[in-house]
TrEMBL record:
It comes from hydrocarbon metagenome. This is Abc-type multidrug transport system, permease component. One of its GO terms (molecular function) is ABC-type transporter activity. InterPro entries: ABC-2_transporter, ABC2_TM, ABC_2_transport. Keywords: Membrane, Transmembrane, Transmembrane helix. It is found in: Membrane. PANTHER family: DOXORUBICIN RESISTANCE ABC TRANSPORTER PERMEASE PROTEIN DRRC-RELATED. Pfam families: ABC2_membrane (PF01061). It is a multi-pass membrane protein. The chain crosses the membrane at residues 48-75, 87-112, 172-189. One of its GO terms (cellular component) is ATP-binding cassette (ABC) transporter complex. The keyword Ligase does not apply. Residues 7-164 form the ABC-2 type transporter transmembrane domain.
Amino acid sequence: MVSFLLVGSIALTILQVAQMDVAYVLLFDMWSKSIKNTFIAPIHSRHLIFGSLFFGIMRGSVVFAILASISFYLFDFRFQAGGLIPPLIFLAGVFSMAAIIGITVCISILTFGQKADVAAWSLSGLILLFSGIYYPVDVLPFFLQVLARAIPLTYFLEYYRSIFIPGPHHLAVGLSLAALYLLLGLILFDRAIRRARRTGILLWLSE
């Protein structure tokens, strides 16, 4: 039970740290009314996402190291119990989920303007709520279980927990969903940028 909760707590913290780095790529510009300047620069949308994600990964990795150390000394939780591959896959899954959430926030900003900053604070919480951070997905009502199974993080949590608490997991499904959502997110983000330029939203969000 301790391992179950610790894995969830670590995932929650890392996800929130990393996804905000991606979301901030447009949130800060929106708050400062300078979002048009970001898109004047000769860079592609993927540069914005992966550049900010890089810093999210760096910060998230530091957070993971700190939390793993604290968990070891306080609860004898050994994050590398199954070797180094499982935690690396787990982190890759959490970071990919952070990128997906961050991209969704950026798309929302370019679509709905300042109202979208609510998504930055609520979206990750909703996803964590349905993906079984502190409880098994099986305890959720059936329709929420279906929703949980559409979230990649659910599978990465199950995979990493299976190292400490033997049980089934479907890692391949999580990896496939994460790759699909990332690709779809990048395509939609690029389209949102073109639409924002065409409709004048970039100027509306700038001074």
